[in-house]
Amino acid sequence: MWTYILVGLVALLAGVAIGFFVARKYMENYLKNNPPINEQMLKVMMMQMGQKPSQKKINQMMSQMNKLQKK
């Protein structure tokens, strides 16, 4: 009787652990292939805030965001 409970508990914990790592890997790949903000979105956001976006400024902001994303 106790062995069935123990086996069930171990199987449940293993399933949760495997599910966590699979979901984490899936999300990492999804965000890598579909970044949340691209240059066009950044340009539109800056124009909405009343700033005239230069390519240099956009490149600086994109590199800064990529650096933060890698951490």
What does this structure look like?
- The protein has 71 residues and is an all-alpha fold.
- The protein has 2 domains: 1-34; 37-71.
- Helix content is 82%, strand content 0%.
- It has helices at 2-33, 39-48, 55-70.
- The radius of gyration is 22 Å and the shape is rod-shaped.
Gap between N and C termini: 48 Å
Mean pLDDT: 90
Helix content: over 70%
What fraction strand? under 5%
Q: What is the domain total for the residues? A: 2
Shape: rod-shaped
Structural class: mainly alpha
Low-confidence stretches: none
Integer-rounded radius of gyration: 22 Å
Main pleated-sheet profile: none
Q: Number of DSSP strands?
A: 0
Give a short overview.
The chain is built from 3 helices and no strands. The protein has helices at residues 2-33, 39-48, 55-70.
Keywords:
mainly alpha; single chain; 0% strand; 71 residues; 2 domains; 3 helices; rod-shaped
Secondary structure topology:
Elements (H helix, E strand, L loop, with lengths): L1 H32 L5 H10 L6 H16 L1
